[in-house]
Predict the structure.
Amino acid sequence: MSQIGSFALLLALVLSAYSFLAGLVALTRKGAGAERLGETARRAGIATFAMVFLAALVLVIAAFQDDFSIAYIFHHSNRDLPGAYKFATLWSGQEGSLLFWSLLLATYGLVLRLRYKTDSRLFAHASVIIAAVQVFFLLLLNFAAHPFAVMQGTLPQDGNGLNPLLQYPEMVIHPPMLYLGYVGFTVPFAFALAALIMRYPGEKWIQITRRWSMVTWGFLTCGVFLGAHWAYSVLGWGGYWGWDPVENASLMPWLTGTAFLHSVMMQEKRGMLKTWNMWLIFATFLLSIFGTFLTRSGVVSSVHAFAQSSIGDWFVGFLAVTFAVCLFFYVKNRSHLRSEHKLESLISRESSFLFNNLLLLVACFTVLWGTLFPVLSEWVQGNKVTVGPPFFNRVNVPVALLLLLLTAVGPLLAWRKTSIESLRRNFLWPALGAIAVGAVLIVVGIRPWKDITYLYSLMTIMLSALVGFTVISEFVRGGRVIKGHTGQSLFASMVQLAHRNTRRYGGYIVHFGVIVIMIGFAGAAFNQDKEQEMGYGDKMSLGAYTLVCRSYTQEDKPNYSSEWAIIDVFKGGKQIETLYPERRFYKASQQMATMVANRSTFKEDLYLVYEGLNQDTGRPILKVHLNPLVMWIWVGVWIMIAGTVVALIPNAVAVRVTAPARIQAAPVGAGD
Amino acid sequence: MRNFVQKTAKLTFLIAALFAFVASDQDARFQTLGHKVMCICGCNQVLLECNHVGCTYSDRMRGELASYVDRGDSDDLTLQAFVQKYGPTVLIAPTTTGFNRVAWVMPYLVLVLGLTTVVLIVRTWRTRPQVIAAGGGGRAGDAELEHYREQARKDTEV
C-alpha cells in the first residue's frame, strides 16, 4: 500500500514539475509548437490531480484498513477509532495535512485548467504559477514530510490513536473548510501575478477571479468560525477565541482577504487602487503560507500546533522566493498599474474603502505583531514574553469599533462625492435608532462608566444597531422604489431588489451577519463562572439558574471510557433541563478530554464542564459558565454564509456600469 | 442600657461590613491577578481558566496567589514574585516597561501613521491633474464631464 502512495506522490511531483517547466517554456515562445507544448503542460497539470488524489485515497484506505506499517497511520489512528475520524486522519497530522493541502491545490488547479478556454493565455500563465506552488508542496511531501514512511522493526498491533481533542464532529469539517480557504487564495494570487506578468489590460482578471475570491473567503470564514466553535465545545475553558498563534494564523489572511474583496470594487468601478489590490492578494497568499509555517515550524508555541520539525526552513525559502518573484514583476511592470481616476472627495465611497482597508490591515498587523513579538523579544532582550488575550483585546477592540462605524457609514456614501445633506438625510434615522438602543441598554442595567469592557460592549451593540438600521433602510428604500413600479409587496420587492444586484445586497447581508457576530462578542463582557465540588444532591446557583447534582455514571466504549455527571437545571423553581457534562479517557492515546454540556439560548449559554475528582477530597468538581449572547455568533456566521451565497448568484437584470474614462498619460507619482 | 446595646449593635455591624468588604476586595484582587498570570503547565491558558483537574502547576500557583493576596502584597509585588519564580513568560501580556513598551505602542503608531498616510493620499489625489481621453482623444469639456458624473451617479443607485 505504501509503495503505491509513494509512487503516486513521486509521479505527481514529476508531472507538476513538467507542467511548470513546459508551461513556462511555452509561454516564452510563439508558434504552433509552443501551443502544443502548452497543451501538454495543461494536461500534465490535470494528471497531477489524478496522482495526488490517488495518494490521498491510498492514505485514507490505509487508515480504514488499520495499516500500521505506515508510520503516519500508526501515529494518528487506532483500530477502534470511529470511521469518520479515520477519514479525518488524512488531515490530522503534519504529513497528511500537507497531502490534503496538495490535493486541494490540485483540485483547484484541475478546475482552472478545465476552464482554460475563458482566456487561454491568462489561464496558461495562472496554471504555470499554480504548478510552481504545487511543485513546492510535492517536494515537501516527497523529501521532508513523507506520509508513506514505513515503520521500522516489529509491526505494532494497534496505533497511538487520534489526539482526543480532535475526536469531535467538527474536526471532520473544520480543517477542510480552513484549508479550502487557505489553498483557494492561490487561485486569485495566480491570476493577479499572471495579469501583472502579462501586463494584462483592464480589470478582466478581477472579474474572472471574483467568484474564486468570494468562494475562498466564504470557506475561510466557515473554517475560522468552525475552529472557534470547536474550541468552545471541546477545550472546556468557556471561551471560543484565545488568540492562540494558530487561530491568529487563520485570521490574518481572512483580514487581508476581506480588505481585498472591498478594495477590488474600486478597481472594477473606478480603475483605482490597482497596485494596492495586487499587493493585497499577494499578501493574502503569503499570509496563508506564513500561517502554515507558523503552525508547523515550532517558531511560536501553540496548543494545537503540529510537532516541531525542520520543514519550517522550506516554508521560509518558499516565502522568500514568492515574495521576490512578486516584487520583481511589480517593479518591472508597475507602470501598468496606474490609477485611471482621481479621488474627488473625502466623503465618498472610495475614501470609505481606503479607510476600511487601512483598519483591516492595522488589525492584521496587530495580530501578526502580537504573534511574533515573543520571538522578537527573545531576539532583542534574550527572553521570551507572553502575548496573551489582554494585549489583542486591548489593541484590536478600538480598531473593530472603527470598522463597525465605517460599515455603517460606507454603504450610505455615493461613489465620487457625497453631499453632507445627503449623508444627513440617510444617516439621521439609523443614528437615532442606535442612540435609542444605547439608552435602552443603560436603562436595563449596562453601566459603561464602571468598566471599560462594559463601555466597549455598549459601543459595539450601538454601532451594530447603527449598521443594522442602515442595512435595513437600504433594503426598504430600494424595495419601495420597486414596489412603486410593480405594485408587489414590499418583501417581494426587496427580494427582487437583491436579485437585481446580488453582489451589493449579498454584501449587505454579510454585513448584517457581521453585526450579529459582534453583538455575540459584546456579550463576553458579562460572562460569569463558578467552580464547586458537587456531591449527590448538592446545589449550585449561577445567575438565574440552580443546578442540582442528581448522579454520576460511567460507561466503557471500545475507543474510550467515560464518566459523566447528571445535572438537573432549575430556573424560577422549575426544572427546565438535564445536562450531562462528560470526561473521557481515550485508551489508545492514554489522554483525558472533556465533553462540555451546553444549554444554548439566544440570551445566554449555560456551559457545564465536569472537571473530574478533587485529588484531596475525592469529590467531583463542576465548573459552570454563564456566557451571554454566544449563540448570536454562530447565527451570525450562517447569515454571513447566506450573504456570500446571495452575492454569488448572477444578477437577474444586468446592472449597467459606465465604462471608466481612460487616462491617456498619468503624471509621475500617480500610483495607488 | 438601651444606648449601649444600640452602640454595640452598630459597632458589630460596622466590623462585619468591614470584614465583608475586605473579603470581597481580596476575592476581586484574586480574580484580577489570576487573569494576569498564565498557567505554566503548557496549556497556554490563563491561570484561573486552566481546567485541568490535577494540574499540579495551576493548583500550586493558585495557592501561591491566594497567599500573596491574603498577606496584603501589592499587585506589582505579587506579579513580580511570579516573574521571579517562573520567569517573564508567566505574565499574560508584555509589561509597559523597557523594550516591552514597543509591543503596546507599535499597533497604535501604525494606526496613526496609516490614517495620516490615507488622508495625505486622498488630498494628493484630489488635487492632482488628470487628462481624460474621450473617444479619439479630445479633452472633455466641463459640461460633458458633469454629464458623465451624473450618469455614473444614476448607474450606481438602485
Q: What stands out?
A: Residues 10 and 142 of chain A are 7 Å apart (CA to CA).
